[in-house]
Automatic annotation (TrEMBL):
<dbReference type="GO" id="GO:0016301">
    <property type="term" value="F:kinase activity"/>
</dbReference>
<keyword id="KW-0808">Transferase</keyword>
<keyword id="KW-0418">Kinase</keyword>
<protein>
    <submittedName>
        <fullName>Protein kinase</fullName>
    </submittedName>
</protein>
<dbReference type="InterPro" id="IPR011009">
    <property type="entry name" value="Kinase-like_dom_sf"/>
</dbReference>
Length: 243
């Protein structure tokens, strides 16, 4: 597939009668323009520039739609078949196989050098063979998020958090450790304090629950930044209360 270089000054200001509306979001409107292509018209040119830049960098990657053309306020890309993962989970839950595929997607984010290791459920599509592809990539080189924060929140709300965390622990223990560190150190609610206080830990031992030395008391809890890489998989009921 040949990518046309962006032509400055070229814009889409009107919708063709033959285009089929697919959906609209905060950043733009998407139309189907053929059986295998869609056009996304952006509300702001800079957002178009950033999303187009991501698709240019990952062109040919199996997790992303191929880019066809970039204009000043639009992109034309490959149409993504399948069903939104959010809808699948709400209906059927999250299978172990798809959970592993989502972890593989995050692994690919790291390999590609993304600064944002996160994704929203609504942006993941699953085809009939359970392959996944990401639409609407945003902020992967301009934002910083070193763990899947929004993904975990979405899975907590719609189901599948346990399956995902288990797959993450088994397939990327380092990212699992970073995720648990962030969740525990940034959620200082009363629930979190109770969780810290009830953990009876071996002296000097660092675990997913906190820093050891007996029962932790007091209002000011430490921010944990040095969890072991061989961190144990924690009880899902405890992590859910912190998200």
């Amino acid at each position: 597939m040949i990518i046309n270089k962006r032509i400055y000054g070229e814009r889409v200001d009107a919708v063709s009668p033959g285009w089929e509306f697919i959906g609209a979001g905060n950043n733009g409107i998407v139309y189907s323009i053929s059986k295998d292509k869609v056009i996304k018209i952006f509300r702001e040119d800079i957002t178009c520039d950033r999303e187009g830049d991501i698709l240019l960098r990952v062109h040919g990657n199996r997790y992303f739609p191929n880019l066809v053309e970039i204009g000043e306020n639009y992109i034309v890309r490959e149409k993504v078949d399948g069903e939104c993962l959010k809808d699948i989970i709400k209906r059927d839950g999250l299978s172990d196989k798809i959970a592993e595929k989502v972890v593989e997607l995050l692994n690919e984010f790291q390999r590609l050098g993304f600064t944002r290791i996160d994704v929203r459920l609504k942006d993941i599509y699953v085809d009939n063979e359970e392959n996944i592809k990401l639409i609407d990539p945003k902020g992967y080189f301009t934002r910083r998020m070193n763990y899947p924060r929004h993904l975990c929140k979405g899975l907590k709300s719609h189901g599948g958090l346990y399956s995902f965390l288990k797959a993450l622990y088994e397939n990327n223990p380092e990212l699992y450790s970073v995720s648990m560190t962030n969740i525990y150190s940034t959620n200082r609610s009363e629930t979190a304090k109770k969780l810290y206080k009830k953990q009876k830990l071996k002296k000097g031992k660092i675990t997913a629950y906190g820093i050891g030395g007996g029962v932790i008391t007091g209002v000011d809890l430490p921010i944990i930044e040095e969890l072991d890489e061989d961190i144990n998989f924690i009880d899902i009921t405890e992590i859910e209360s912190l998200l």
